[in-house]
Amino acid sequence: MSPLTKSLMLISADGTTIYADASGDPSRPAIVFIHGVSLSSVVWNDIFNDTKWTDLFYLVRYDTRGHGRSGMPTSPSAWESKRLAEDFDAVVEGFSLSKPFVLGWSLGATHIVDILSHHPGNEEYLSGAIHLTGVPFMGPGISKAGTQFALGCLPSLNQTDDVEKFQDASRRFVKGCSKYASFELQSLCLGNFVTQPRAITNFVCTREQDATEFFKAGENGFLPLLAIACTDDLIVDGRSAARALGPWKNLKIVDIEGADHMPWLSHSEALRNLIADWVKGVLSS
Which terms in the GO cellular component ontology are assigned (predicted)? Predict the structure, then answer.
């Protein structure tokens, strides 16, 4: 039986609907999972349906605006940084979370910049952050962290003139995420790509951020950050992404040998133990 315990359709500050659900015991340390570009929270199914994970954490995930089951606003104002932070706030409030950890995967890690910009200097809002093969920030952060393979897919994913180019790039990107992904998961991911309006894909990839408060959190040392790189990742160069973080005082960088862009599929135990040990250390410090 799935350990899914709660699902909600939340309303963000600007009225955009945000789908979110949770697995596990709310008394355990909470981790909010944020997926990557043009996908949705279905990428986390293998984690959220695994009692080895829910025995350790209260797992919360949501479809970011413009993705999956959430609302898909296409006005430029809907893609200001504060709007994405407000979506996260709606999830925190909807599930009554107190100082959760936030895990951003791939381009989803950039949302941590939005959250910190909206809650500057607030040491009581988050317990810590996890970059799971994550792009640290928008703009130059994408070029520093993205591989040539991933960056090569983006033009065809953003254009609207050639359906075959879009289909080919979607398939290549999804297959590039993991050779361990099941046909079912690949199909769900491709469905996410197809149902997302191209205008939103463009907003997601080109939106602007101010990373000032993000870097302040690192320089001041109040936000612990775990940066996880995977040696066989075709999408994100985790080591380059970690170097882009600069002088982050409370930073731990770990490589998972042999893992690709979806390490929870092939290296679930190693990833779970790594996160569990780090979370335990943060909470006990």
Answer: membrane
Contacts of 79 (CB under 8 A, 6+ apart): 66, 73, 203, 204, 207
Residue 24 backbone zone (phi > 0: left; psi -120 to 50: alpha; other: beta): left
Alpha-carbon dihedral sign for residues 114, 115, 119, 122? negative
Q: What are the structural domains, with CATH classification, of the chain?
A: 4-284 (3.40.50.1820)
Tens-digit pLDDT profile for residues 184-219: 999 999 999 999 998 999 999 999 999 999 999 999
- For residue 112, count other CB atoms closer than 10 A to its CB: 27
How far, in Å, CA of 29 to CA of 88, rounded?
17
Give 172's contacts (C-beta < 8 A, 6+ positions apart).
Answer: 153
In the sheet that holds 225-230, the strands lie side by side as 4-11, 17-23, 58-62, 30-34, 101-105, 128-132, 225-230, 251-256
Backbone angles phi, psi at 228, to 5 degrees: -110, 120
Q: Which residues of 20-39 are buried (b: 16+ CB within 10 A; e: fewer)?
A: bbbbbeeeebbbbbbbbbbb
Helices (H), the chain: 45-48, 51-54, 81-94, 111-118, 140-145, 148-158, 163-177, 183-195, 198-206, 212-220, 238-243, 263-266, 268-284
Closest CA to 74 of 20, 14, 33: 14
